[in-house]
UniProtKB/TrEMBL annotation:
Gene3D superfamilies: 6.10.250.2860, GTPase HflX, N-terminal domain (3.40.50.11060), P-loop containing nucleotide triphosphate hydrolases (3.40.50.300). Residues 164-191 form a coiled coil. GO terms for molecular function: hydrolase activity. Its main location: cytoplasm. Monomer. Associates with the 50S ribosomal subunit. This is GTPase HflX. It comes from the Bacteria. It comes from Pseudobowmanella zhangzhouensis. GTPase that associates with the 50S ribosomal subunit and may have a role during protein synthesis or ribosome biogenesis. The lineage of its organism: Bacteria, Pseudomonadati, Pseudomonadota, Gammaproteobacteria, Alteromonadales.
Amino acid sequence: MFDRYESGEQAVLVHIEFSDENSREDLHELQMLVDSAGIQTLDVVTGSRQAPHPKYFVGSGKAEEIANAVRACDAQVVIFNHALSPSQERNLEHLCKCKVIDRTGLILDIFAQRARTHEGKLQVELAQLRHISTRLVRGWTHLERQKGGIGLRGPGETQLETDRRLLRERIKSILKRLEKVEKQRENGRRARNRAEIPTVSLVGYTNAGKSTLFNSLTNADVYAADQLFATLDPTLRKVTLQDVGPAILADTVGFIRHLPHDLVAAFKATLQETREADLLLHVVDYSDEQVMENIGQVEEVLTEIGAGEIPQLMICNKIDRMEGVAAKIDRNEDGRPYRVWVSARERLGLDLVLQALSECLSASMVQYRLRIPPAEGKLRGSLFHLNCIAAESYAEDGDWLVDVRMPSTEWHRLNKQHDGNLNSFIIRNQ
């Protein structure tokens, strides 16, 4: 499909500092991504600019410096810590005589290495195809696909057009298969809702320690390593909490600043576990110097995927790397836990996490007795659909008397769907 250079495992890294805060990236994070991809760094070229150059992203002098570094090190790939346009990639490859990939391409490569399940592989392929579709080059257009005798001469379909058509067909096929996976996940969630089992989703910046915490709380054996994107495929496990009973804990893919939109779109089914959760465990590496920036990036992605309104419990992880910090629960003015300090690796404070989880989930459940008139049959149908009705009887005037128990997030969502009128049907709190 491409007239492009072969990539290898030895790279020259390029990091440019911009004055604009939104365009800035972290060089240390790039080196961690490169290590996670199993690539050896031979040289790092740095520089600063006010804005990207349209031809090479960097200036022509800096582009020559990169090309010289490639020749001096005999590198097979140049990795930019920024998003490049297709034309910038091609111009740089022509100059450097080797493969050039940007930050998005590097993250996609790591995801392709990590995917284990059928669903994960499909999602990665979809993201890669969407990324590739903007980078098809007119390398084979001199090869006409159709030729013939008199009356049949003409260029026909060029190879580029064929490539685009094949890509579109493959993307359509993957989307259909992912639709089936999403339906299967939806069925699993409905079964959990019927059994009134709350779901807790672990979210956080990549390499914050989510999988280590998940393993410690559930005795699972999910792969955990000190590298970016060690977890790709979501894993669900059941835990038993005091005063709540069984709950489902979901380990999910880590977030990263400027997460490629292709990935957000491709991992829609996976991120659905986060969107539908009753509570988010926001795991934070508090020993990281950029902890506040990382928290901001996670909040940004949560808002982007529609999970910004879900209640959170922050888990401040890796206290074993910090001096004078002990495992504890921080509470707000109402006495509700909002932050727990732990070390998942050293198993410090795990009992406090379970205690805080129990308090948050029991507080997040609402129980009401409702009086629903016959004209509001749609509301009664919604309650049955949510499987939250504990008991039902009839009043003398024909109204339904319904006892409901559900997560407060579901109650607020339902209230919004019924124009905020649900409170008028409440007889009493249970």
